[in-house]
Model the fold of this input.
Amino acid sequence: MPSPYREEHDHFRNTVRQFATKELAPYVEEWEKAELFPDHVFKRAGELGILGAHYPEEHGGAGGDYWFSVAKAEELPRCLSAGVSMGLLVQSDMATPVISDLGTKEQIAEFLTPAIKGEKIAALGVSEPNAGSDVAGIQTWAKKDGDDWIINGAKAAWVSNGTVATHAMVHFAVDRSAGPVSTAIGLVPLNLPGVSKGKPLNKIGQRALNQGEIYFDNVRIPNSYVFVPPELYPFAGDMILATANGGMGATFTGLARAAFEEAMAYCKQRVQGGKLLCEHQLIQRKLFDMFIKVESARQLSRAVLTYNSVTEPPLARYGVASKVYCTQVAFEVASDAVQLFGGLGLCKECLVEKLFRDARAALIEDGANDTLALVATPSLVESFI
Done:
């Protein structure tokens, strides 16, 4: 389809594409084994302007529009690792926007600008050992002590960038019996006394994405670091959900496309039954069904990011719809790609095997799809009254 991008968008897209294919993809296997990718990836992404393209110039970004975010999310999976893509997405689109919107000049200079330059690493601390998709069940809590807050609790092993991050946007309860209406979000530098970290999580997919626990034992932060007080949390929570899920939709559309392109290339060179796989009618139908899924996911994810970029507040149900649909498409297309590769698709040396595992993780990541759909439905029902 014709490109929706202007010249500057195309230049940025090409920058992300070259970065992904030349500087990331050759090392993915090594990073998968290590269960993380190195700090210099963040720094390089920052140097190229990939992390900060959509942030204001006064914050150290390029002042670009939402199409820069779309291009980044769609193109990073060309590194053939959703884990690397998600680590960079958390850094630039999930754990830092609150600082940009609500931080002081000093906080922006101390945390946001270094993060979008890749000099610091950000994490988003939401899920807990007993509260995964159930955000209302958060038990990490904080109490006011003069002009400070004292935080106690733990964030689960699923905190992306968790064991390598320099700071985290932490969701915590003020009154653990009151649910979301008592929840706040505060920035916690992870070198403070009382902070400790677990080991990188050993998991089936997205192995290059560092994830691990963060523990808080009487960790003290100033009141100015609490960017979202409880009275604003319902609004901020929906905004974060809409933004994060929208980014997930675009990212896994990119993974679906990567799996489709891998399968197409293989079918154009593999001979079975005396002719190329792509010349068999059954295979042709399978490829075309995969193409339909990829393109429908692309259109939905772009439409959601477009709509929510100009809607105040952004609507979480659209972000959820994008995440649920596009991650499901990524899983189905990656599964079809494995099938087209046959026995080879089951081997660790085959890229589609890894894409399949990465896509499977996405059905749970950033909110399990079934739970997210239930969370978004009341808003959907109300909108039709």
Observations:
- The CA atoms of residues 334 and 355 lie 6 Å apart.
- The chain has a mean pLDDT of 93.
